[in-house]
Amino acid sequence: MSMQVFGLPVSRGVAIGRAVLVASSRVDVAHYFVEPDQVPDEIRRLCAARDLVCAELESLKDEVQGDTPAELVALLDVHVMLLKDELQAEATCQWIEERHYNAEWAVAAQLDALTRQFDEMDDEYLRERKSDVEQVAERVLRALDRADRACMPPIMRRGVVSSQGEETPLVLVANDISPADMMQFKGSVFRGFVTEVGGRTSHTAIVARSLDIPAVVGAREASRLVRQDDWVIIDGDAGLVIVDPSPMVLEEYRFRQRQGQLERDRLQRLRGRPAVTLDGHRVELLANIELPSDTSAALAAGAEGVGLFRSEFLFMNRSGELPDEQEQFEAYQAAVQSMRGLPVTIRTIDIGADKPLDRMSAHDHALNPALGLRAIRWSLADPDMFEGQLRAILRAAVHGPVRLLVPMISHPSEIRATLEAVERARSKLVAEGTPHGAVTLGAMIEVPAAALMLPRFLQHFDFVSIGTNDLIQYTLAIDRADEAVAHLYDPWHPAVLALVANTIRMAQAAGKGVSVCGEMAGDPDFTEVLLSFGLRSFSMHPTQLPTIKQRILRTDLAALDGLAEHVLAADDPRQAGLSHSRPVSIPLPQAA
Q1: pLDDT tens digits for 222-280?
Q2: Which of 517, 541, 566, 580 is catalytic?
Q3: Would residue 93 show up in a list of annotated catalytic residues for this protein?
Q4: pTM, two decimal places
Q5: Does the annotation mark 203 as catalytic?
Q6: pLDDT tens digits along 318-333
Q7: What is the CA radius of gyration of the chain?
Q8: How does DSSP assign 165-193, residue by residue?
Q9: Catalytic residue (choose from 31, 100, 203, 541)
């Protein structure tokens, strides 16, 4: 029976595919596909873990004999019986054999299937036995986690092949997806994803938009309502998930998919065209990247440089071992050289809040990590790590123009400490005779304190970059990853717009460069408003560049006269911004 699940639309477009469920568990579960020739080894891993848990439980039974209540011994017997159940063992192995799931994923998938069956039982006593199944599964997962595996394959690298030899499209349904796991979507087969939690500017949503993957977040109960292999439509425009759609609905959405692809193809023809308004004002369009390999997509989209290299993604998925100076240097060097003389802005590591490292410290478990030891605070608290990163960036500057960007700086003492750290790293390179280059130094404006004391910042920095995602979060006291308050996260809030407009105005008055690298830059609804504020440098993910370029090409700045004042004075800035003027229609280049 077809059903609809509603959530928040965070990445436009339509995705259609078979559902792949990542069951939530109290134990972290690795989800990846194994190659066909790895299936026997993966089944052996599963069997070895099951045998290990059986042996542990049998040993525990022997230890607790005597004064131990008979009920406890009986409970252990139940757990051993569940482990030795051949039907369940075969069903778990089937996930590996037919779907090529890794052992952990197979256990989680079978647990999900079993708990559904228990939930549907009428007998209350039997329903409560679900906890026994969960406890046994978690023991097996922990046993698998203890197993020595030399290498963890990349997540989701290929699809499931049907009996006709065709690859079946897949969509991911999960409670949540970490930013580190989301990064692996770049090489995955998933056409879209649905999560039960998250907001419009959570990092999972941001990465989904940047990868141009249709997505819906905050879709409560999605994991319970969607079953493995269900056909699912993800409507990223409406925030709608359709489960088991009718043939008529399926065909309608397939038509919309084709139309969307045609529009993307049309926009791609603008790649080599400079971003110049109708009245001749040049606008700089830069790309946001996470890894050096992303530079190829930036160049293909026509980016004029990298406005934000999120260096923290070099530090993730490393089992707690951070990259050393040489590894970072090679990554930054690769990015700089790949951009062929165009500028590359490298942001120092922005770790914390919803982007934790595998290596956690006591500080990372703060009650409110968004207000804790993150970004530049984290770097200054670890001088050796910070010095290694600064040295690597300075060394990479030999190979092309590099801008060094400092995140979440908000206090004069942080400015002094950062400048001293940069000079210390430079002095040591000079003393060693290690080749290095000059960098321009910039600050992220993402904390209201920084925006309010911008003149003091501009005395020390060559440029500023407005990170609107965090600026909105901190201005409005809204956790952008919390769907419970997601409706209060408002980029059109008058206070937010005033901070953005004033930052642009003051930076330009001081003769310093200013750009926007947050989600606002890639949102076409804000293009004319930001242009009216005086912004002439936008930085966004490469997939968003064609849409924003088209908007700029169709805009006459003279027609925007008075828009900034109108929006900033309006009770409803969104309505004022969207209705004040519409861009002029111009023909797109014809296909060759």
Answers
A1: 888 898 889 999 999 899 999 999 999 999 999 999 998 888 888 888 888 999 999 99
A2: 517
A3: no
A4: 0.71
A5: yes
A6: 666 789 999 999 999 9
A7: 26
A8: SPEEPEEEEES---HHHHHGGGG--EEEE
A9: 203
